[in-house]
Amino acid sequence: MPEHTFQLEGGQFLLDGKPFQIHSGELHPSRIPKEYWRHRIQMAKAMGLNTISIYTFWNDHERKEGKWDFKSGSRDLAEFIRLVKEEGMWLLLRPGPYSCAEWDFGGIPPYLLKYPDLKVRCMDPHYIHGAENYLSRIAKIAKPFQISEGGPILMIQLENEYGSFGNDRNYMKWLHDFWVKQGFKVPFFTADGATTYMLEAGTYPGAAVGLDPLTNLDQIKLAHRYNPGVPVFCSETYPGWLTHWGEEWARVSADDCAKNVRFYLDNKLSFSLYMIHGGTNFGFTAGANNGGKGYEPHVTSYDYDAPIDEQGRANPKYMAIRGEFEKGGTKLPPIPGSMPAMSIPAISMKAYSSIWNRLPKAVELVQPKPFESLGLYQGMAIYRTKLIGHKSGKLTVKDLHDFGVVLVDGKFVGTLDRREGRMSIDLPAAQSEVPTLEILVEGMGHINFAADMIDRKGITDRVTLNGMTLMNWDFIPLPLYMEWVNSLKPGEVDSRPGKIFSGEFRLESTADTFFEMTGYQKGYVWVNGHNLGRYWSIGPQKRLFCPAGWLNKGFNQILVLDLLGTQSAPISSFETLE
């Protein structure tokens, strides 16, 4: 017999037959070093919460097509759920297949973009085939952890904010029926904005209605209009917010957070704080929006101005929310101590190598094609052609996704930037009779939300010079995989942008740290082979988080690939993000 029961009945959540309020906080295991999972769960509990909400990201578990990983590093889903149970917490499971979460492509694997006719979040055969393979593996792991089996999982989310995207009721039914066929007995929930059209398209009969966010009691009446008789709760309320490159850090006040929590507690409403602790978009995992400003890539830090900061420390917002629980007489455990952090004195850097020294074999194309159609799903590529006919003038790329460095005969001309809508540049006259044009293209985050999610990278249409379409290209992929980084050897450093700088340092002990990148312009950082993520001089983020587990006692190496800079600069590290 299970230790507990959880039901939806009479418009309420019932735990062991008694009304129960979910006080949840969102954590994403994939954004947190595994060795810190227990600490973050304990931090959430000490703030007053009784439940952890998590996304699982399909493309983090299937980074290469058909290669599944639910064990290495922060991908060990079963271990995270065990820790939640050990700490006496409940769990809301949000398995996707689509997650959003400011994560690359909303968690969908970019390899699906190789299909020219791909449609996502509907009954498209390519999407459904992949989603079923993924969800069947999640189901196998999660099934023993249902509350009906003695585990911590209270509910499973069917889809995420589906009413903001589409209205395929067959797809929603397919998701529901999939979990039932897998033998799942826990209730389901959806999460949508509190608007008429979103609720009509995104809710599902019999599933609890989550609102993102729930801000007044009239919204509960609206939700019941489309899904009567089920509990309505706040599936996401925002103590912080996301930040894009080139913006100021998003901030939400501690007073506003405390007022929101007090509203839920006073009205005996269930809620989930998104995020309680954000963590980090390591590697290529940061996604992008495509809102009113155009293309908006997310920064590497997912600090989110959350109550528990990127390095795991409680901030004033945390204390304010904890105080609201204490006002109600809740006796809370002590706040766990912070993880150690350190600063590292300036590390001397030197030119080490260049992307131009290790170019793989080119693929010949009549006209440019996007990365994904050529088997490249992250990283960069070089598009190269000879200028025949026009040799100078207005160069236009239709459409560049996302950032380009333009060179003629190996000389830097300038940059293109989708974020700013800058798709054209003037080419100067070259000295050679048949100049060589090279466009080094960086694909940044795949769009993770709303209507423009089919977001292929590279040059997605064509290139013109004074209106003439340029033909006959070489495509040279640069996936920037760890295998490529580890294979780098010191060599003659090319004069073109795309230099790799190296530094070595020794440590007597290790702790978390943040590497300061103000001496560089745009690129990536690896420490001992681990990709810390993207940096960009436009800010607001200047420092990249490096967990203690990625550092060594003794010898350490840092590598920097800069798309624009040609001179090295020393790198220091600090104990905090700012």
What does this structure look like?
Helix 8 (254-266) packs parallel to helix 9. This protein has three domains: 6-327, Glycosidases (TIM Barrel), CATH 3.20.20.80; 344-352 and 488-574, Galactose-binding domain-like (Jelly Rolls); 359-478, Galactose-binding domain-like (Jelly Rolls), CATH 2.60.120.260. With 578 residues, the protein is an alpha+beta fold. The model has no long low-confidence stretch (mean pLDDT 96). It is 18% helix and 29% strand. It contains ten helices and 32 strands. The protein has an eight-stranded parallel β-barrel with strand order 4-5-6-7-8-9-10-11, surrounded by five helices. The chain has a six-stranded antiparallel beta sheet with strand order 16-25-17-22-19-20, with no helix packed on it. Strands 15-26-31-28-29 form a five-stranded antiparallel beta sheet, with no helix packed on it.
Task: Find the count of extended strands (DSSP E, 2+ residues).
Answer: 32
Number of helical segments with 4 or more residues: 10
Helix and strand composition category: alpha+beta
Query: What is the makeup of the main sheet?
Result: 8 strands, parallel, barrel
What's the architecture of the largest domain in CATH terms?
A: Alpha-Beta Barrel
C-alpha-based Rg, rounded: 25 Å
- Can you give the helix content as a percent range? 10-25%
- List the domain count as a whole number: 3
Quickly name the level 1 CATH class of the largest domain.
Answer: Alpha Beta
Percentage of residues in DSSP E strands: 25-35%
The average pLDDT value, as a whole number, equals 96
Task: Indicate the overall shape.
Answer: globular
The largest beta-sheet arranges its strands as: 4-5-6-7-8-9-10-11
Low-pLDDT stretches: none
